[in-house]
Amino acid sequence: MAIATVNPATGQTLKTFEAQGPDEIEQRLARATAAFRDYRTTDLVTRAELLRATADLLEHEQDEIAHTMTTEMGKTLVAARAEAAKCVKALRWYAENGERLLADERPSAADIEDSGARAAYVRYRPLGVVLAVMPWNFPLWQVIRFAAPGLMAGNVGLLKHASNVPQTALYLGDLFYRAGFPEGCFQTLLVGADAIEKILRDPRIAAATLTGSEPAGRSVAAIAGDEVKKTVLELGGSDPYIVMPSADLDRAVRTAVTARVQNNGQSCIAAKRFIVHSDVYEGFVERFTAAMAALTVGDPMLESTDVGPLSTERGRADLEELVNDAVGQGATALCGARRPPHHRVGWFYEPTVLTGITPTMRIHREEAFGPVATLYPADDLDAAVELANDIPFGLSSNVWTDDEAEQRRFIRDLEAGGVYFNGMTASHPAMPFGGVKRSGYGRELSGHGMHEFCNVTTVWYGA
């Protein structure tokens, strides 16, 4: 894939970039290694001050980078501004909480005595240079949610971003340096996917984190495993959105629409499979379909637009293949299932609602990365859980019920990294984020995410 900015709303190539060659990659690896030697010794107060300076700079440039993101990958300008603001929040959160999260942990006095020690504690030390392989769908947030805890912990980062968001990638590489981080602490690599293996195998790379597709995750995990290097993977998701009879149906419908079409439907944690109890199924379907059909598809730069284009022509084709396969096998499209006839250019696709989904259809088990919702009736809680778990993924889940006994069952039985009641899945700096099964392993955000790339060191003093 060429490294280029191609406007998804028009299909026009705006700017192309040459991939960095071996010499430049080597320079950046050397620079990162040298930076880590010094940066790892900085105190936590200094690191927090640098994160705050980065937050201030990003906040000042919020509109500029929002326009860049919308131009490169098609999210609405409203969503792009919100993404930038979320990044500012995360930077400040780690600046405020990093020292607490990285504080030494001390066992109980009884355990220290039992170990034969005079004193003992656990210290979190940085690992080194971490390679971050990041996706295009949240081109700022996905990077910041790694970089903020990583830099606070004393690591340094090398970013290999998606090839269709090069200007956002370069902005990130420059942002931390302009905010005052020492040269080499965070750098962007403009390289294709074919360069990842050699970089990851370089002994100067200590670990890697990837957010992306399952095939990409398998590849990085295999290489890192061969090199015995730590990885964190956040891969695909096909999250269930379960609605039980006690739910506030109007709120559940309104939230369901947002949960499905956020980021033009291109979010791993977007609700994709809507599993609705039979007692309220017809009412939900009628209201949900009407709300999806009423969404405005159009220019993502306009404040009035609800759904912009998909990020790439290939992405739209993949989504169409899933929908056509389902309809060809008997599924019913209650709305959408086509390209908007009034958009002759750009990679637009109408918000779509499908019913009659069966296990033989690809969309039952594959992730639909676009504004396409599948609906399933469930006769009871057991049927809802079975449907929710009947996929290879386990990123997050959404459940609408006011019944406490039902809530306990869902917490116990849903195979997912998160269970969100009476709302939609959303990441927050204070909450760990990640999945199970083929949605990956490890966690981002919170103290858990910070500690993933720390050398958790036992310090023991003999009596």
TrEMBL record:
The keyword Plastid does not apply. Keywords: NADP, Oxidoreductase. SUPFAM superfamilies: ALDH-like. Residues 3-459 form the Aldehyde dehydrogenase domain. InterPro entries: Ald_DH/histidinol_DH, Ald_DH_C, Ald_DH_CS_CYS, Ald_DH_N, Aldehyde_DH_dom, ALDH_GabD1-like, GABD/Sad-like. Belongs to the aldehyde dehydrogenase family. NCBIfam families: PRK09406.1. This is NADP-dependent succinic semialdehyde dehydrogenase.
